[in-house]
Amino acid sequence: MRGGVSFIGIGVEYATFKADSSLSAVNEGAAVTLVSNDTVGLGTADKPLVGKILKYEDDGIVSVQYEGFAEFDADSTALPVVGGVAVVNGAGKVKAAPATTTIDMATNVVVSVDSVNNKAVILLK
Fold first, then answer.
1. Cα distances (Å, whole numbers) of residue 86 to 29, 41, 81, 99
2. In this structure, what CATH number is given to the domain that contains residue 88?
3. In this predicted model, what pLDDT tens digit does every residue of 50-69 receive, in sequence order?
4. What CA–CA distances, in Å, run from 22 to 32, 46, 62, 83?
5. Which of 19, 41, 56, 109 is the most buried (most CB within 10 A)?
6. Residue 26: phi, psi to the nearest 5?
7. d(CA 34, CA 15)
8. Is the pLDDT of residue 101 over 90?
């Protein structure tokens, strides 16, 4: 919680997805994107942010937060911008969407950024 304000957990919705074969329990908390039918993974840089892995199951199923406020690890080389849109960096973190992105704030909006600890709070929609 920064500045006495915390949004974490507000409006949270979860869904079950198949896990890409590259995912494991160490990826809990990672930012993910869709990689194929019903399947999420780390993807590649600049792909749309779908949500955050909350739980990885050994049968290859993951619980993903796809809506509400969530805190993500952020890529220190391309920190998201408050009021902007975040995308995945392909390594489980979020980053600022490129200026040429077609992804808009209908999918997510960055609410706060902690540049010291490389964290970003994002409202997933």
1. 16, 16, 8, 11
2. 2.40.300.10
3. 999 999 999 999 999 999 99
4. 12, 18, 12, 31
5. 41
6. -65, -15
7. 13
8. no
- Whether 22 is covered by a domain: the verdict is yes
Q: In the structure encoding, which two tokens stand for residue 118, read together? A: 């490389």
CA 119 to chain centre: 11
> What CA–CA distances, in Å, run from 103 to 44, 87, 96, 100?
15, 9, 11, 9
Q: Is residue 74 part of a domain?
A: yes
Are 28 and 51 contacting, i.e. CB atoms less than 8 angstroms apart?
Answer: no
Residue 63, domain extent: 13-124
Position 120 in a domain: yes
Place of tokens 């970003």: 120
Q: What is the DSSP string of 27-80?
A: GTT-EEEEEETTEEE---TTPBP-EEEEEE-TTSEEEEEEEEEEEEEB-TTS--
